[in-house]
Amino acid sequence: MTDYLNSTRKQFEYYKLLGEKTFAQVSDEQLFWQYNEESNSIAMIVKHLCGNMLSRWTDFLTSDGEKAWRQRDTEFENDITTREELLAKWNAGWNCLFKALDTLTTDDLGKVIYIRNEGHSVIEAINRQLAHYPYHIGQIVFIGKMVLDNNWTSLSIPRKTSNRAADLT
């Protein structure tokens, strides 16, 4: 089960990196761009991820993952104003997640924790977040692709190059 914990950490690190590679490509203005009023900007998604991570991973084994202090609805207000503020929230969330994840042992994996008063094994709770965060990071990447259009640099194998990539292995 140590392999599970190591694997999940690597997966979280990978998705964190995808977000950061997107941030590096977009302008400050593009971090706050919204397709329409019903859609989220990159900054709003980061704010939501931070709120979720702080709520879920603070006192992970000992308190409900939906903290009373969390203000989920405000996470979808576009009120981050600078790249630095966005990155501070991004890093605060991830630091909380990795700190909690790094304290877990294989003995903890079968324990039951609660999210909104619903019991989850630690493995289920980790898997829940491992599905949730990539969903939103995919949105961040997609927004980056939309705002950059032809200036987007692929984060994986660029289109029409997969045969060349196979030749390199």
UniProtKB/TrEMBL annotation:
<dbReference type="InterPro" id="IPR011466">
    <property type="entry name" value="DUF1572"/>
</dbReference>
<dbReference type="InterPro" id="IPR034660">
    <property type="entry name" value="DinB/YfiT-like"/>
</dbReference>
<protein>
    <submittedName>
        <fullName>DUF1572 domain-containing protein</fullName>
    </submittedName>
</protein>
<dbReference type="Pfam" id="PF07609">
    <property type="entry name" value="DUF1572"/>
</dbReference>
